[in-house]
Amino acid sequence: MSIQVEGLSKTYGRQKAVDNISFQAVPGKILGFLGPNGAGKSTTMRMLTGYLLPTSGKSSLGGYDTSSQSLEMRRIMGYLPENTPLYTDMYVREFLTFVADTYQLSQPGIKVKDVIARVGLGDEQHKKIAMLSKGYKQRVGLAQAIIHDPEVLIMDEPTTGLDPNQLSDIRELIKTLGKNKTVVLSTHIMQEVEALCEQVVIINKGKIVADSSLIELKKIHKTDSLEDMFRMLTG
Ligand code: ADP
């Protein structure tokens, strides 16, 4: 179950937000999708998850075309958007039960209980989402993204707003998920890339400026510092 992106572009008015990009992601190798603010990361992720139609080009997830087969594709895909839209008037457990029902999961009670444990929401499960701290809201977002055990997982800045303890828990979870799923995540935290990602794609002004394994990338640019490399390629 892999991700294939071929010549994908998105134009807003006269601006090319994403400009003819191609890359692929495979299971077991977490792909870090990096780039400065405004580079086109979220736009790309929205196209990959079927929330935005490309101006040209195509992409597929697990063999499903993200434009024409988006319903089928969504069954095998989990998405954590940048600002997770959560029903903040709902209670954590109630919301996740609603998500499980939407996916028509068998044994929804067990799935909800299991995902609450996996993302570490046990102590907060009876609270209203609106009452949760940013870090815990993020965990609810992650829970809704993985509750149906998707084969492909796309996460837009999954660790934003987490404190150092939460950060380490969530990274551990992402690492575990990435062992057999196809995972693409965007982040501005270079240590996160070092800790999690085997593959790196860097986008700048809508175009891809690097696409290789982290090890290769360091070899090519003769530096161990991902930050230096990032500045060089996007500055
Ligand atoms: P990133 O996620 O890398 O910060 P985005 O994909 O959000 O970048 O944005 C890429 C470019 O497209 C930016 O210049 C942004 O201002 C522009 N953009 C994003 N969404 C829209 C929109 N709905 N309408 C017009 N321009 C947009």
From TrEMBL:
Keywords: ATP-binding, Nucleotide-binding, Transport. It comes from the Bacteria. Pfam families: ABC_tran. InterPro entries: AAA+_ATPase, ABC_transporter-like_ATP-bd, P-loop_NTPase. Residues 3-230 form the ABC transporter domain. The keyword Cytoplasm does not apply. GO terms for molecular function: ATP binding; ATP hydrolysis activity. Belongs to the ABC transporter superfamily. PANTHER family: ABC TRANSPORTER, ATP-BINDING PROTEIN. This is ABC-2 type transport system ATP-binding protein. It comes from Pedobacter cryoconitis.
